[in-house]
TrEMBL record:
Protein name, entry field: Peroxiredoxin-like family protein
InterPro entries in the record: PXL2A/B/C
Pfam family, one: AhpC-TSA_2
Species this protein is from: Okeanomitos corallinicola TIOX110
């Protein structure tokens, strides 16, 4: 079964009204349908992907692209995710056990078996290995890019934007000029965005991640035309791999 058929037949709880409905409901008038199958809603990739979507929200609306997202978690996870990222709750669905991910054959993450550990403990052990780049190609390279900057990526924070939510005192985005100028992703800029996301999740861990047995599961991106023809897909190979081009994660829409 192709991805569109799987997605069009999938029924999940919608965060906005808590009802179970078809994932692609009310997408009939859209020029294109973008479906994000996210890992845990408290995952680095989920929060960062949502940030990019909010950044480009006006452009996506002008292109008449309907967006639907599914994340691993419960309704409380979805509400917290939407409140923090600004992602529309009417477009977010929750899948507590990642069943859709399995149907789509998305990468479940490293599965090194350790006798005597609970499913949650095994998942944590494998997640740590993935964070070190084992069974998660590109992760370390992407971590380092967050610190060294990237001239192929846009500036992430406006000069007058006040950056809060990190262990540091609040500061203006213009601070990053000291690290290398403006008009592109400066050193430490992406690392700061990720640090802010990490602080948010750690403060609300049990809400974002009600079951840590699924923390290694990766996601995928699927773009269809109005007839359900698959135009693009990306299957995440590891942590911080939610896009083929991480410098411009939504460039596939151009």
């Amino acid at each position: 079964m192709n991805p569109y058929n799987i997605l069009s037949e999938t029924k999940l709880q919608c965060v906005s009204d808590r009802t179970t409905k078809t994932l692609l409901e009310n997408c009939e008038s859209a020029a294109k349908i973008l479906v994000l199958v996210l890992p845990q809603l408290g995952d680095f990739d989920s929060l960062e992907y949502a940030w990019w979507l909010q950044r480009e929200a006006k452009n996506l609306a002008n292109q008449k692209i309907a967006i639907r997202a599914v994340g691993i978690g419960h309704l409380d996870s979805g509400n917290k995710f939407c409140a923090y990222t600004g992602f529309p709750p009417e477009n977010l669905f929750v899948d507590p056990d990642g069943e859709l991910h399995q149907k789509l054959n998305l990468y479940s993450g490293l599965k090194v078996a350790i006798p005597g550990l609970s499913p949650s403990q095994k998942a944590w052990f494998n997640l740590l290995l993935m964070c070190a780049g084992i069974g998660s190609p590109g992760t370390l390279k992407e971590v380092f890019r967050g610190y060294k900057g990237d001239k192929n990526a846009p500036q992430l924070f406006a000069d007058e934007e006040i950056i809060k939510g990190t262990p540091l005192p609040a500061f203006k985005g213009s601070f990053f000029k000291l690290a290398g100028g403006h008009g592109f992703q400066r050193p430490f800029e992406l690392a700061t965005l990720r640090l802010r996301n990490m602080v948010e999740v750690l403060k609300n861990w049990s809400t974002y991640v009600p079951d840590s047995a699924h923390i290694t599961q990766r996601g995928g991106t699927f773009l269809f035309d109005h007839q359900g023809e698959l135009l693009y897909e990306h299957r995440d190979p590891g942590i911080l791999g939610f896009a083929a081009n991480m410098s411009q994660p939504l460039s596939f829409l151009c």
